[in-house]
Amino acid sequence: MRTIINLNTGWKFINHDVGLVDCDPVDWQDVTLPHTWNAIDGMDGNGSYDRGSYWYARTFETPKEQAAGGKTYVEVLAAGQQATVYVNGAEVTYHEGGYSVFRADITDFLKEDEENLLVINCSNEYKDSVYPQSADFTFYGGLYRGVNLISVPDTHFDLDYYGGSGLMVTPRPCDDGGAEFELKAYVTAPDADFTVLYSIQDKDGWEAAYGCRPADDTAVTLYVPDAELWEIDEPYLYTVTATLQRRNEAYDEISVKAGVRSFSCSPEKGFILNGKETPLRGVSRHQDKLYKGNALTREEHYQDAKIIKEIGANTIRLAHYQHSQDFYDACDEMGFIVWAEIPFISVFNKAPAAHQNCISQLKELIIQNYNHPSICFWGISNEILIGGISEKLVENHKELNALAKELDPTRLTTIAHVSMTPLESPMHHITDVLSYNHYFGWYGGKMEDNGPWLDRFHALHPDLCLGVSEYGCEGIITYHGAEPACKDYSEEYQARYHEHLAQVFDERPWIWGTHVWNMFDFGCAARNEGGVAGRNNKGLVTIDRKTRKDSFYVYQAYWSKKPMVHLCGKRYAMRSGEMTEIRVYSNQPSVSLYLNGELVEEKSAKKVFVFTVKLAEGQNRLLAVAGEVKDSMTLEKVEKEPDIYVLPEVNERREGVANWFETTGEMDLKAPMEFPEGKWNVK
What we know:
By secondary structure, the chain is α+β, with helices and mostly antiparallel strands. It is built from eight helices and 42 strands. Strands 30-29-28-27-26-25-24-31 form an eight-stranded parallel beta sheet. A six-stranded antiparallel beta sheet has the order 3-2-5-10-7-8, with no helix packed on it. The N and C termini lie far apart (54 Å). The relative contact order is 0.10.
């Protein structure tokens, strides 16, 4: 049987390109995986971060199964952005792409009676054949998801094909209330002595269906009567197990989770799940955290998913690359509709090698994640028209879309267009559905431009399914003011922006999906905005996950079914002026506001309740009551508000702030960004 050995401890690391070593390097730094060398400098505000080629090493014993004539694989869960793996001085594999699983058969390189030396060279240096070429986030280096050894018999479920599980499960609901499970396992070196046994178990462990196939012809369809559907609110999961059997001996075994659901998109009805119109309203997510970079544990991935569940979102766009299997598992279990995509982003490279890298990353994305019921969309690019359009770019997209449909005809394909993509564009008719990244009210225009633009596109293209894949603005929780305006970076302006957009989308259920940019602040070494360098501060939650900004509660009021009320402006705690505005968010029909124990007013409204109060001298206690839920805060009336409430720089008013990509030159391959030796810097 298969044995998986975790190799996350006992590593040595050196952040110098010292070359391949031939013995255990005792003088290197001790590290535990997951690990990145950019945990600090990837978001510390210095404007650059280390992009180098560095080394990891550790020893391990040959698994016992190896001595019995089996196979041993090394499995790297991700390595940013390129990696070469060596065993006992021999190169066993090289991988390009920083976000996917890859494996190598190391059987012939192992020693039976001595310790083996595993060395991995990771590089996050710029390489013109590897995507992403350039983007608005930090490209962390390192072994940031972990490493395993997998020991299997000679005949085993496949471990070689693009990092896949070796088992593909395609469940489909039937009209009679049951479900068909199309199953196919992939077996390495089968012969007539081997069969594959399939078992489908419900969430309680009871067997719902069983099947048997020869190991060289494994495809079968099993029927589950009275099947439970995978729903957003009740994400029911079955466990599908494939056992490789040799007579009365189980040789190898793999299990995956699966969910039964149907879905589609309509230009007029939006997203439809299990026959019910279900507008997708949610967020985008990057995979990093304060001073951990992207080296997150399983628990931290689940924490992120729980916070997104708390806001009431039903969809997540996983930007702009393949995320951890832990996070996809969390989405399966918690009931999110997921948009998963490859890092074909921002800068188009016409070179064939770069296109092949896109193809490889798309294959890995789909093959490794095929069984996740949460995934309904494969994204093939993001803002790739920044540098303009060409026949080659259109051709490459058509090829990627065709590949996605070939590998997985059950899911929809999509694309995220940069805002300036013309209303009439050949790119609109490549994928099944499309979305735009729009920042009206931040990078240009006014927030009020969003609704008319959407209506115009919908009128011009009544046959296209339109979504909004990014929208948002910076919100820094120390900046406040009674008259929030674009470019003041205040928590209040961010909240007002999202108040407006939440209403715009609520009034247009035909928009198949909307994704706030971003759920969490994230690292971007190139940025220096609003007095907070090294970060993109558009998150609804701070990068350390400690503070939910007021804008978080806008969406909780719109999306959450759990009764809630939230008083805005808790951090705007010292206020001047005769009168002050109090905003309250709630999903209840009415809110009562109390000031110092006295009822100010009871109001009825939809989600946003606005009161005007006169504060007494000194500290004032405010209480908002909405049905059975309450929220309170304390405000102080002062003569002058603290200077910290205002962005500490000359802040001339204009329509919008500069796009990140407008500061980087022409954004073509000749000068996409500036890359000093060993560093990445766009200042």
